[in-house]
């Protein structure tokens, strides 16, 4: 597995407590900048109670896809016990209580049935059903999804968001990060000096310039692209190179949402 080994070693660095005092340590998008408050409102933080002690640790991102459901990556699921997870939406600064957050526990976890634990074989996608619905508090929004089978052209600019590592030494930010990231079409990403056979047509590659990339802690979060007059979530952060995440010709790889729409809707 490519990114997962490094990813699991970071769990526990990101610590959330109670809603009114949830100081955390977290990770961020490499090459990004602070997102403006109250933007990217479909972004979620998936948090795990690693020690069953009531302290939740941010492990991954996620996307609000309807009032009860969050889309994330299958490799973010460390246990199938939903009581060990909560989702935070309307989140901005993980070090502070902003007053915009909704803290909701998870009721059910559905992992794609063809997920094997091998990132290179794809199907890195999961849907969480929440115990209570997300309500519109002015800081959350249900994501638009792409059309069935939609592919993005080479060089199309999308945006990656999350609280992932900001550099290879593990520097961390407090607030949500965002960065523009160009799509790398499959015919390029699957070349031997790129990701080769690990890049499947069920994935979207983006980046690879050696500057901007996702990294540990961004997994499960959205790749947001403005298509057909609206922001749509075209990808779920899946993997990237171990070690330094922003390597030339090794773009961030996302699960392609347009390929999995039938499965997503069957879960909903």
Which keywords apply here?
single chain; Thrombin, subunit H; mainly beta; 268 residues; six-stranded antiparallel barrel; disordered N terminus; six-stranded antiparallel β-barrel; globular
| CATH domain fold name of the largest domain | Thrombin, subunit H
Helix content: under 10%
Biggest sheet descriptor: 6 strands, antiparallel, barrel
The string of secondary-structure elements, in order, is HEEEEEEEEEHEEEEH
What's the rounded overall pLDDT mean?
88
- Tally of strands: 13
**CATH superfamily heading of the largest domain:** Trypsin-like serine proteases
Radius of gyration: 16 Å
Shape: globular
The number of helical elements comes to: 3
CATH class group of the largest domain:
Mainly Beta
Adjacency order of strands in the biggest sheet: 8-9-10-13-12-11
Name the poorly predicted regions.
1-28
Amino- and carboxy-terminal Cα gap: 29 Å
Number of domains: 2
The CATH architecture term of the largest domain is Beta Barrel
Structural class: mainly beta
In what range is the share of β-strand residues?
A: 25-35%
What is the topological layout?
Blueprint: H1 4-10, E1 33-34, E2 43-48, E3 57-66, E4 69-72, E5 85-89, E6 102-111, E7 126-130, E8 157-162, E9 177-184, H2 186-189, E10 203-206, E11 222-227, E12 230-239, E13 252-256, H3 261-267
Antiparallel strand pairs: 1-9, 2-3, 2-5, 3-4, 4-7, 5-6, 6-7, 8-9, 8-11, 9-10, 10-13, 11-12, 12-13
Walk me through what this model shows.
With 268 residues, the chain is mainly beta. The chain has two domains: 4-21 and 41-130, Beta Barrel (Thrombin, subunit H); 157-258, Trypsin-like serine proteases (Thrombin, subunit H). The protein is built from three helices and 13 strands; from the N terminus they run αβββββββββαββββα. It has helices spanning 4-10, 186-189, 261-267, and strands at residues 33-34, 43-48, 57-66, 69-72, 85-89, 102-111, 126-130, 157-162, 177-184, 203-206, 222-227, 230-239, 252-256. The chain has a six-stranded antiparallel β-barrel. A six-stranded antiparallel beta barrel has the order 2-3-4-7-6-5. Strand 11 and strand 12 form a beta hairpin. The model is unreliable at 1-28 (pLDDT under 50).
């Amino acid at each position: 597995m490519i990114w997962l080994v490094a990813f699991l070693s970071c769990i526990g660095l990101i610590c959330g407590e109670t809603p009114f005092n949830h100081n955390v340590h977290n990770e961020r998008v490499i090459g990004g900048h602070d997102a403006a408050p109250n933007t990217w409102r479909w972004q979620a933080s998936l948090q795990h109670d690693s020690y069953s002690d009531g302290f939740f640790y941010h492990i991954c991102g996620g996307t609000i896809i309807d009032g009860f459901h969050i889309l994330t990556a299958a490799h973010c699921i460390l246990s199938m016990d939903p009581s060990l997870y909560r989702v935070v939406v309307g989140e901005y600064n993980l070090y502070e209580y902003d007053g915009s957050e909704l803290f909701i526990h998870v009721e059910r976890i559905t992992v794609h049935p063809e997920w094997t634990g091998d990132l290179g074989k794809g199907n890195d996608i999961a849907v969480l059903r929440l115990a209570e619905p997300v309500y519109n508090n002015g800081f959350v929004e249900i994501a638009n999804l792409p059309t069935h089978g939609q592919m993005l052209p080479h060089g199309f600019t999308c945006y990656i968001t999350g609280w992932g590592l900001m550099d290879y030494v593990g520097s961390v930010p407090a607030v949500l990060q965002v960065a523009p990231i160009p799509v790398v079409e499959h015919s390029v990403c699957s070349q031997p000096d790129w990701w080769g056979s690990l890049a499947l047509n069920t994935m979207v590659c983006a980046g690879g310039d050696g500057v901007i990339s996702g990294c540990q802690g961004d997994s499960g979060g959205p790749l947001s692209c403005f298509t057909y007059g609206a922001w749509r979530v075209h990808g779920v952060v899946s993997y990237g190179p171990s070690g330094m995440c922003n390597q030339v010709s090794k773009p961030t790889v996302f699960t392609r949402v347009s390929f999995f729409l039938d499965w997503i809707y069957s879960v909903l």
